[in-house]
Write a structure and sequence with these properties.
alpha/beta, 9-stranded mixed beta sheet, 6-stranded parallel beta sheet, binds nicotinamide-adenine-dinucleotide
C-alpha cells in the first residue's frame, strides 16, 4: 500500500444526522448550539469547508470531508495555480454535485489566497499545499477560530515546527479540532498493532528498524513562460524549502510509526548519512535520493531509519520492532501486522480506508464538540525527519535540543512570482554547517 495514493476501499461511514428535527430533539443539539464555544459563532449547522492546495491530496481530502457528514459543503478553494484549482473543482463537482457550492467569489488564487479563504466564512480548513507553507497557513486558520485538517509533514524547519506547536496549543485553548494527515494513526490494523506494542506485547523495546525505500516520483518539464518561482512550485518535491526533502515529505510516515511504537518520546540525538547518487540532474533541485539515520532514545532504544527514492532497487515500506519478549512487524506494502514471541498474534480484523476514517472522526468530533488535537505528535514526528535531514546534510551528531533550537529558516522571506530564489547547492556532509 502506498500512502501516496488515495485508496478505493469501500469504507464504513458514519453519517451524522443533522436535520433540524434531530438537532432540536437531542442533547447533542444542545452541545452543538450552546455549550461548545466553537459553535457559539456559527449561525448554521451546515459545516462549510475550505480547501487550501487543490492538488492530488487536497482534492482527496475534500472528497473525504464531503463524504464524512451529510451536512457539509465545499464553500471555498485556494491555490496558487488556476489550472490546479479548476481541475480539482471539476473532479469534486463530478463526484459531489450540489455539495460543491463554490461561488466565483470564493475561488482564491495567489500566495495570500489561504487568508482570503479563511476570511470567507468557512468552518473547517483543509491544508494540503507543499509543507513549506503549512506553519503560516495553520497559524492563520487557528487564529481565525477554524477547525483544521493538516496534511503531513507539518513544516520543513525548526522555526516552522515552533509555529505549529504554538498553533496546536492555541487550538486546544480555543476548543478547535486539529487533525493531522499522519493517516496510519487512523488505520484500524495499525491502531491495534501499535496498541498491543504500547501495552507491552514485545516487552522493553531495544530496536526499531523502519524503511521507506521506493522509486522516484513525478517531475514536470520546465516551460519557457514559467518563472523560476513557478518552476520550483510546480516541482516542489525537489526543493527543501517547499518539501523538507523526501525524508520529511514521504518517509516521515515511517518515522511517525517508529515514534508511535515507543509512545512518542523525544529522541536524544540522531546521526546519519545520505546523498544523491542517481537523481542528480538539475531538474531535481537539491534534494537527496537516500538517507540512513540512527535515532537514539533515552532508555537506550535505537531507531534505524532508511529511505530511498531510486528506481530498480529493492523496495520496502515497513516497521520492525524488537523487544525483550518478542518482535512486531508492520509491513505497509504487504498489509502484514503481526507479533511473534511470548505473544503470537496476527491482525485479522476490519480493514478500513484510513483517509476516510480521518474525516469521519474529524467531523464527528466537530459535531460533538469534543475536539481532536493531533498537534504535538504531528510536530514531533515531522521534527524527527528534519533532525535526521540535519544529521545527514552536515554529517554531525545532532541532539534534539540543537535541532529544536535551530534558527535555520528555509525559503524566501517573501513570496512573489518574480523572486529569483536561488537554488542552494546540494548539501555536503562534513562541509555543510549546522545552523
Ligand atoms: N497522507 C498522505 O498519505 C499523503 C499523500 C500524498 C500527499 N500528502 C501530502 O499532502 C501535501 C500535498 O501533496 P500533493 O501530493 O497533493 O501535492 P500536489 O502538488 O498535487 O498539490 C499541492 C497543491 O498546492 C498548491 N499550492 C502550492 N503552493 C501553494 C500556496 N502557497 N497556496 C495555495 N496553494 C498552493 C499547488 O498548486 C498544488 O495544487 C504534501 O504535504 C504531501 O506530503 C500526504
Amino acid at each position: 500500500m502506498n500512502a501516496h495514493s488515495d485508496h478505493a476501499h469501500p469504507s464504513r461511514r458514519k453519517f451524522i444526522k443533522t436535520t433540524g428535527s434531530v438537532i432540536a430533539a437531542s442533547p447533542f443539539a444542545l452541545n452543538l448550539l450552546s455549550s461548545s464555544p466553537v459553535f457559539a459563532g456559527l449561525n448554521s449547522e451546515t459545516l462549510k469547508v475550505g480547501l487550501v492546495g487543490c492538488g492530488g491530496r487536497g482534492t482527496g481530502a475534500a472528497n473525504q470531508a464531503l463524504k464524512a457528514d451529510d451536512n457539509v459543503v465545499l464553500h471555498a478553494v485556494a491555490d496558487v495555480f488556476e489550472d490546479r484549482l479548476n481541475s480539482s473543482l471539476e473532479n469534486l463537482t463530478k463526484a459531489h454535485g450540489k455539495k460543491v457550492k463554490v461561488d466565483e467569489g470564493h475561488k482564491f488564487l495567489g500566495f495570500d489566497a489561504y487568508q482570503k479563504l479563511i476570511d470567507s466564512g468557512v468552518d473547517v480548513v483543509l491544508l494540503a499545499t507543499p509543507p513549506g507553507f503549512r506553519p503560516d497557513h495553520l497559524t492563520a486558520a487557528v487564529e481565525a477560530g477554524k477547525h483544521v485538517f493538516c496534511e503531513k509533514p507539518v513544516a520543513v524547519d525548526a522555526p516552522g515546527i515552533q509555529k505549529v506547536l504554538a498553533a496546536a496549543k492555541k487550538a486546544k485553548e480555543k476548543n478547535l479540532s486539529l487533525m493531522s494527515g499522519f493517516c496510519w494513526r487512523y488505520h484500524y490494523p495499525k491502531r491495534e498493532t501499535f496498541g498491543k506494542i504500547l501495552e507491552g506485547a514485545v516487552g522493553d523495546i531495544s530496536t526499531i528498524y523502519n524503511t521507506y525505500n521506493t522509486g522516484t516520483l513525478w517531475s514536470k518539464p520546465r516551460q519557457p513562460e514559467w518563472s523560476e518561482m513557478e518552476y520550483q512550485l510546480r516541482n516542489w518535491l525537489y526543493y527543501n524549502w517547499l518539501s523538507g526533502d523526501h525524508i520529511a515529505e514521504q518517509a516521515v510516515h515511517s518515522l511517525d510509526m517508529m515514534s508511535w511504537a515507543l509512545g512518542d518520546p523525544k529522541p536524544v540525538s540522531a546521526v546519519g548519512t545520505g546523498g544523491r547518487q542517481v537523481r542528480t540532474e538539475d531538474q531535481f533541485g537539491h534534494v537527496y535520493d537516500h538517507f540512513a539515520i540512527v535515532y537514539e532514545y533515552e532508555k537506550g532504544a535505537k531507531g534505524f531509519h532508511f529511505c530511498r527514492q531510486q528506481f530498480n532497487c529493492e523496495n520496502s515500506y515497513a516497521v520492525e520492532v524488537f523487544g525483550n519478549k518478542g518482535n512486531a512487524l508492520v509491513d505497509c506494502t504487504r498489509g502484514v501486522h503481526e507479533i511473534k514471541g511470548q505473544t503470537s498474534w496476527r491482525f485479522k480484523g476490519e480493514q478500513n480506508d484510513m483517509y476516510q476514517t480521518e474525516h469521519d472522526e474529524l467531523f464527528a468530533a466537530i459535531r460533538k464538540g469534543t475536539p481532536i488535537n493531533d498537534g504535538n505528535y504531528m510536530a514531533q514526528s515531522t521534527m524527527l525527519a528534519i533532525m535526521g535531514r540535519m544529521a545527514a546534510y552536515t554529517g554531525q551528531k545532532i541532539t534534539w535540543e540543537q535541532a529544536m533550537n535551530s534558527k535555520e529558516k528555509l525559503g524566501p522571506e517573501q513570496y512573489t512570482w518574480d523572486v529569483q530564489y536561488p537554488v542552494s547547492s546540494v548539501p555536503k556532509p562534513g562541509i555543510t554547517e549546522f545552523s
